[in-house]
């Protein structure tokens, strides 16, 4: 008996349009980074797509790119200055209602709201996902504390705005976790805990070790688990280019090691019921695309 798919599916035409817009954003992102000498590289599903499909994973609807924190901080004002008419920078610093610690380079004039973010009051559009990577203390005790604090406060930031986050599983465990999340959201709302304060707590923890000149590892702790984006510096450099659709995108030198740590046998196609995307609650392409339909 075929298992029921957990995630909604796009029609082929809509998914292709989304991928085309995201590829346009990626090209603009690469152009501004290359012109200003900023390091960047594809990660996670984008890496799998490059190695397994030479582009998007066929059912995927986003592109994930990481940058060292210093380069990331230089990029944001450059995008706003040079491309502000086309893109906005979506993060919790600029838009306090945005409940995530990732940053999005979002195309103006589009709408893309995932089901989990459907009630968020922010201009969410089709985007490129940016992950700033921060230094991880070489002291194991300090590193564990940094990971714990950053991950914890990033989840509190989500719960401040979203009472029932999307979970990757179901059953009685999901019901219990949803109940706990709903209670936490209620308490945070009743106490009027400022979203900006929570964001600053997460940011402080995430960037806590950046005062070190060099560390062996970089990480973005504020994800599903705190170590899923852990990168050994020796595995990142020198960067190498791989085909991704019709561009050559930078990736970590030892991409295989990174992806194996995250996914195991990433070259094996997952069963259909686990082929995840970010199917939107609300989707709107910009006017030019509508008029040319």
From TrEMBL:
Keywords: Membrane, Transmembrane, Transmembrane helix. Residues 33-264 form the LicD/FKTN/FKRP nucleotidyltransferase domain. It holds the Pfam family LicD. InterPro entries: LicD/FKTN/FKRP_NTP_transf, LPS_cholinephosphotransferase. The keyword Transmembrane helix applies. One of its GO terms (biological process) is glycoprotein metabolic process. The chain crosses the membrane at residues 150-170, 176-193. PANTHER family: LIPOPOLYSACCHARIDE CHOLINEPHOSPHOTRANSFERASE LICD. This is LICD family protein. It comes from Dorea longicatena DSM 13814.
């Amino acid at each position: 008996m075929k298992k029921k798919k957990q995630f909604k599916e796009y029609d082929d035409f809509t998914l292709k349009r989304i991928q085309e817009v995201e590829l346009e954003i990626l090209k603009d992102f690469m152009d501004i980074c290359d012109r200003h000498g900023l390091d960047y590289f594809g990660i996670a599903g984008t890496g799998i797509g490059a190695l397994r499909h030479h582009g998007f994973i066929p059912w995927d609807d986003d592109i994930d790119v990481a940058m060292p924190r210093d380069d990331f901080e230089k990029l944001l004002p450059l995008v706003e200055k040079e491309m502000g008419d086309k893109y906005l920078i979506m993060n919790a610093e600029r838009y306090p209602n945005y409940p995530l610690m990732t940053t999005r380079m979002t195309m103006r004039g589009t709408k893309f709201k995932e089901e989990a973010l459907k009630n968020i009051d922010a201009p969410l559009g089709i985007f490129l996902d940016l992950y700033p990577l921060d230094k991880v203390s070489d002291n194991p005790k300090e590193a564990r504390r940094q990971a714990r604090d950053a991950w914890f406060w990033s989840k509190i930031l989500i719960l401040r705005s979203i009472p029932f986050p999307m979970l990757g599983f179901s059953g009685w465990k999901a019901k219990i976790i949803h109940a706990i999340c709903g209670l936490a959201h209620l308490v945070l709302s009743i106490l009027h805990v400022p979203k900006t304060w929570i964001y600053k707590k997460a940011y402080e923890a995430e960037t806590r070790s950046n005062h070190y000149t060099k560390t062996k590892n970089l990480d973005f702790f504020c994800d599903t688990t705190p170590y899923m984006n852990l990168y050994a510096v020796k595995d990142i450099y020198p960067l190498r280019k791989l085909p991704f659709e019709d561009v050559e995108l930078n990736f970590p030198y030892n991409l295989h090691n990174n992806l194996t740590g995250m996914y195991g046998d990433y070259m094996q196609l997952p069963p259909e019921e686990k082929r995840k995307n970010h199917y939107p609650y609300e989707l709107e392409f910009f006017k030019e695309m509508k008029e040319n339909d």
